[in-house]
Amino acid sequence: MVSSLGLVTGSTVRAKHIGKDIFAGLKNIVGGELKAYTELLNESRNEALQRMMVDANSRGANAIVNVRFATSNVAAGASELFCYGTAVVIQ
Amino acid sequence: MDSELVLILSYIAVPLVFTLGFPVSSWAIGRWYQSRLMNVLNVQEKQQSAAIGGQLTGSTSNKMTSLTAQSSVLLHTSIVVGPSIGQMFFMWIKSIFGGQLHSYDIVTQYGRREVVRRLQEQATQLGCSSIVNLRIETSTISFAKNKESKTSSLEFLAYATGIRN
User: What confidence tens digit (pLDDT) does each residue in B14-39 have?
Assistant: First the structure.
């Protein structure tokens, strides 16, 4: 590890789509996994990761270590997916 | 006199059946469906642990000297699970008295185990030989725009570092 370039972050706020919401509501009659939400959250988390990588690239880092994820409810019906890590330069 | 009694009883019974019929059936269906999911998970977990051979390492405070890594990759999976509407209704009643909420127990247990199983699956797909520094996070997702709604579900996120060697 050559040098540390500090904290890099990436986040997205996603609200869900009404069609998916109705489906999830129907699925809630039996419970279990809600696939529509799982997919939605996975793709938004990938986007947050992408943004973090862009941030790290713009600082000239070639690796990110110690990545953490956090999820929070910012408003009713929308959630924020946030990821952060330390950008470093490695050999 | 007799028909009057029947009429009065039906005035009480019919709305009662209509209001309780849906939660009870939803509760029963939810219980059945979730126990079936649990059985499937038990089988899959056994198969997978036999295939991987217990190569799962948690967080460690010491420097690990036994592992030699060629490259590493970030693994992450998430799952959204929720109890059924009927189960939520009965949990709401149960929460007046307090105590263990068995339906939520099943949901959280299922979610955590399933998400770790999927993480292992992803690791084997990406050619990782071991998983280190596994973390699991929990958050809630509410459906409705208004806060009064009791419908909510849980999201479990598992992430870890996959080691290739």
Answer: 888 888 887 888 888 888 888 888 88
Q: Which residues of B touch A37 (CB under 8 A)?
A: 80, 141, 153, 155
The number of beta carbons lying within 10 Å of the beta carbon of residue A58 is: 10
pLDDT one-digit tens code per residue, A22-58: 776 677 777 778 887 888 888 889 999 999 999 999 9
- In total, chain B counts a number of residues equal to 165
* Structural domains of chain B in order of their starting residue, each with its CATH number: 2-164 (3.30.110.70)
Contact B82 A42 (CB under 8 A): no
B33 to A30: CB separation less than 8 angstroms, yes or no = yes
Q: What percent of chain B stands above pLDDT 70?
A: 83
CA–CA gap between residue B98 and residue B91 (Å, rounded): 9
Cβ distance of B78 and A38 shorter than 8 Å: yes
List of domains in chain A: 3-89 (3.30.110.70)
Residue B23 touches partner A, C-beta closer than 8 Å = no
pLDDT at B54: 58
Cβ–Cβ under 8 Å, residues A46 and B77: no
CB contact under 8 A, A33 and B80: yes
Query: What distance in Å separates the CA atoms of residue A73 and residue B143, rounded to the nearest whole number?
Result: 11
